[in-house]
Design goal:
Blueprint (H helix, E strand, L loop, with lengths): L2 H15 L12 E2 L2 E9 L14 E5 L2 E3 L1 E7 L4 E8 L8 H15 L5 E7 L2 E9 L2 H10 L14 E4 L7 H12 L6 E8 L10 H10 L3 E7 L6 H11 L3 E4 L2 H15 L2 E6 L10 E8 L5 E3 L3 E3 L4
Parallel strand pairs: 6-7, 6-10, 10-11, 11-12
Antiparallel strand pairs: 1-2, 2-13, 2-15, 3-4, 3-14, 5-13, 7-8, 8-9, 14-16
Length: 310
């Protein structure tokens, strides 16, 4: 089924009183009475900190200190990655460099057991490669990304959504990647977006894209590729709320450095698990804050989750 119909429905639903997500439990990384999350730790020089122990962390839910019951340092846990490439006219000057850097990134990051997919977005959102561990397939998909060109065809080959607005469907792309693609995956999940974060055509709102990522436990990283700096407010909200990073990119050298930072973080994370003191299964949003006892360090982690419903 084409995703145009899905987004058209969501558009109507939002006008009628706000989007309502009824995600089944399998789409939420919150088990009954247990929450799992991944975090990266950096020092004041922005270097990744490794070798920490469970006692080095403090974890709060809605301001209440929680007991961490599960802990591990994760460097080889499989990860599922979505690469989203902005192919609107504003990215013309950097698209070639973006494609080269994205291909090299997959080559460095993907290991046995990992999966990747590739999407492009402008006035359409196109699935260029579905989940695969074949780097050749991913590289060819990246190379097919073109400025303002829709691929057409069925789901596995063509547009996930189509807009009649002629604008840039950034929010739609993030929503579809998280809600419709990554929701069925397990383990670590991340979306990396190459964009200026300026949306001019999506059917859904920024908050809906954020919520889709939160509900599917998907971290969003944004490489903000824009000569003028792009929309940093939008990019920061998406990344901060999901535990990702926003990195401003103004040159090909910066692009390589940004991918190196994301690669380093994906391979140096800590897994934390806890049983919430709030036992209510009300579907409400709970705020999470991860701190380090050593105040020289800072933790990057998602800021919350949605509790399960009864």
């Amino acid at each position: 089924m084409r995703f145009r119909a899905i987004l058209s429905y969501l558009c109507v639903a939002s006008l009628a009183g706000g989007l309502a997500f009824a995600a089944p439990p399998a789409q939420i990384r919150v088990q009954v009475n247990h929450v799992n999350l991944f975090t990266t730790v950096r020092d004041k020089r922005k270097s990744v900190v490794t070798g920490l122990k469970q006692d080095d962390f403090q974890l709060y839910e809605d301001g209440q200190l929680q007991e961490i019951t599960d802990f591990s340092a994760e460097s080889n846990l499989p990860i599922t990655l979505g690469m989203l490439i902005d192919t609107s006219g504003s990215e013309t000057y950097m698209l070639s460099a973006e494609k080269d850097a994205a291909s090299r990134f997959f080559g460095r990051v993907l290991r046995k057991g990992d999966l990747g997919m590739v999407m492009s977005f402008d006035s359409d959102v196109d699935l260029l490669a579905d989940f695969t561990d074949d780097r050749g397939v991913l590289n060819r998909a990246i190379n097919r990304a073109q400025i303002n060109v829709a691929s057409g065809g069925p789901l596995a080959q063509g547009p996930l959504s189509t807009s009649d607005s002629g604008g840039t469907n950034f929010y739609d792309a993030v929503y579809l990647a998280a809600h419709d693609k990554l929701s069925g995956e397990i383990g670590r999940k991340a979306i990396i977006v190459l964009t200026d974060a300026e949306d001019t055509g999506s059917k859904i709102k920024l908050q809906d894209a954020v919520e889709a990522a939160q509900r599917t436990d998907t971290v969003v990283h944004i490489l903000l590729v824009a000569a003028d700096g792009g929309d940093q407010v939008v990019a920061k909200k998406l990344t901060d709320e999901t535990g990702g990073r926003m990195i401003v990119v103004r040159s090909e050298k910066n692009l390589e450095q940004a991918f190196d930072q994301i690669s380093e973080e994906l391979r140096n994370q800590y897994a934390l698990g806890y049983t919430p003191s709030n036992k209510a299964h009300d579907g409400g949003y709970r705020k999470i804050k991860v701190e380090l006892k050593n105040k020289e360090y800072s933790a990057l982690a998602r800021r919350g989750y949605y509790a399960p419903n009864e």
